[in-house]
C-alpha cells in the first residue's frame, strides 16, 4: 500500500515506519520536527520524508495514498496545556484537515492515534460505550477529532480511531515524559525511583512495539473497523504505579531507593480492551518487564538524557520557533481545507 504517516518521526513513528517499510509498503512521512535533533533517514531507507506542517502543507501532499496513519500532535497533557490554541490548531483542526483531504484525494483508509485519556479519571473499567470525560486540552482535542473524523467513515473511506493506553518502551526518539520510561531511566542513572504519591493510582499501559503492531493491523485490515473508536491495550497492563515502581526497583537491584513526590494522587482509571480483540483481532505481546529490561539495556549501552526526550521542552522550542519555521518552509499561516 501507499501509506502516509503524519508525525512519523516521533516516538511511535520511529518504531512504526521501519516496520511498515519492512512489510513492503511505500511510506511517506510528513513531520515538521525531524532533523532538529536527529536524522531518521538511515532507518527510513526507501521512505519519502517531507518536512512540513499538517496545518498548512499543500493539499497535493495528500494525493496518491491508499491509507493514512495520523500521528502528528502535541502529544501529551502538559504539552497540550503549554499553548491551548496551538493544541487545538494541530491536534484538532490539523488532523481534521488531514482526514478530509485524504478522503477527498482518494485514500481508502484512515487511522488516527487517539488516547484512553478521553475517559478521564473514574472508578471501574471504561469501555468504548463509557461517556468520555476529557480533563485536559489534549484529551478534549482527541474527543473532538474522533467525532469529526469518524463521521467521515463510509463505504469509500474507512476511518478508525485507536485509543491507546499510555505508552512505554524504547524507541530512537525516546520520551522521558512517559511514566515508565522516566522511572526506569532515572532509576538507572540516579539509583532512585521517583514515584508520585502514593502509587495507588491505576493507569492503562502498552508497549510502543504493540502500538506499532496495532496501527499496522488497523491499516492493513480488510474488516469493518471504521466509524468507531477502539481501545488498544491489555487489562493485564491496567497497573498501579506502586507495582510498576516495585518491578523497576527489583530489576535495578538492591541499592535502588524509592522517593515519593507530589501530593497524594488517587485519580485512577482502568480500561477494557475487548473491542481490540474482537474487531481488530489484536492482542498485546509485550509486558511491562520487557519494556523495563529493554530501557535498562539501552542505559547500559549509553542511552543519554537528550533534549528531544523532554517532550514539553521540545514542543516549547517548536512553538517558539513557529515564526522562523513558517519562514523556513515558506508557509502562509492559514489553514487550507
Ligand atoms: N505516547 C503515548 O503514550 C501516546 C498514547 C496515546 C496516544 N498517543 C498519540 O500518538 C501520536 C504519536 O505519539 P508519539 O508518542 O509518537 O508523540 P511524539 O511527540 O513523539 O510524535 C509526534 C510527532 O508529530 C510531529 N508534529 C507535531 N506537530 C506537527 C505538525 N503541526 N505538523 C507535522 N508534524 C507535527 C512532531 O514533530 C513529532 O515528531 C500522538 O497523536 C499522540 O497523542 C501517544
From TrEMBL:
Domain of life: Archaea
UniProt domain NAD-dependent epimerase/dehydratase: residue ranges: 3-233
Pfam name, any one: Epimerase
Protein name: Nucleoside-diphosphate-sugar epimerase
Organism encoding this protein: Picrophilus torridus (strain ATCC 700027 / DSM 9790 / JCM 10055 / NBRC 100828 / KAW 2/3)
Lineage, opening ranks: Archaea, Methanobacteriati, Thermoplasmatota, Thermoplasmata, Thermoplasmatales
Amino acid at each position: 500500500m501507499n501509506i502516509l504517516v503524519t508525525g512519523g518521526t516521533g516516538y511511535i513513528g520511529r518504531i512504526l515506519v521501519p516496520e511498515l517499510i519492512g512489510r513492503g509498503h511505500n511510506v511517506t512521512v510528513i513531520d515538521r520536527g525531524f532533523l532538529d535533533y536527529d536524522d531518521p533517514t538511515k532507518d527510513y531507507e526507501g521512505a519519502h520524508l517531507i518536512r512540513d506542517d499538517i496545518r498548512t502543507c499543500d493539499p497535493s501532499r495528500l494525493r496518491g495514498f491508499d491509507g493514512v496513519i495520523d500521528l502528528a500532535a502535541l502529544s501529551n497533557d502538559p504539552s497540550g496545556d503549554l499553548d491551548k490554541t496551538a493544541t487545538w490548531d494541530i491536534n484538532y483542526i490539523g488532523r481534521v484537515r488531514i482526514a478530509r483531504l485524504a478522503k477527498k484525494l482518494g485514500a481508502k483508509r484512515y487511522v488516527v492515534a487517539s488516547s484512553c485519556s478521553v475517559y478521564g479519571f473514574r472508578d471501574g473499567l471504561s469501555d468504548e460505550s463509557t461517556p468520555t470525560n476529557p480533563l485536559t486540552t489534549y484529551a478534549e482535542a482527541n474527543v473532538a477529532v474522533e467525532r469529526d473524523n469518524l463521521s467521515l467513515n463510509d463505504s469509500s473511506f474507512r476511518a478508525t480511531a485507536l485509543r491507546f493506553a499510555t505508552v512505554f518502551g524504547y524507541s530512537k526518539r525516546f520520551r522521558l515524559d512517559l511514566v515508565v520510561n522516566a522511572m526506569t531511566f532515572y532509576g538507572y542513572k540516579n539509583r532512585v525511583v521517583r514515584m508520585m504519591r502514593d502509587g495507588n493510582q491505576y493507569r492503562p499501559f502498552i508497549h510502543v512495539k504493540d502500538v506499532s503492531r496495532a496501527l499496522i493491523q488497523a491499516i492493513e485490515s480488510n474488516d469493518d473497523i471504521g466509524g468507531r473508536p477502539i481501545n488498544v491495550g491489555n487489562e493485564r497492563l491496567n497497573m498501579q504505579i506502586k507495582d510498576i515502581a516495585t518491578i523497576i526497583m527489583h530489576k535495578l537491584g538492591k541499592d535502588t531507593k524509592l522517593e515519593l513526590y507530589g501530593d497524594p494522587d488517587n485519580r485512577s482509571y482502568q480500561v477494557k480492551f475487548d473491542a481490540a480483540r474482537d474487531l481488530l483481532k489484536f492482542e498485546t505481546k509485550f509486558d511491562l518487564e520487557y519494556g523495563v529490561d529493554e530501557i535498562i539495556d539501552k542505559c547500559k549501552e549509553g542511552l543519554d538524557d537528550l533534549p528531544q526526550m523532554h517532550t514539553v521542552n521540545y514542543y516549547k522550542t517548536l512553538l517558539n520557533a513557529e515564526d522562523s519555521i513558517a519562514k523556513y518552509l515558506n508557509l502562509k499561516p492559514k489553514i487550507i481545507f
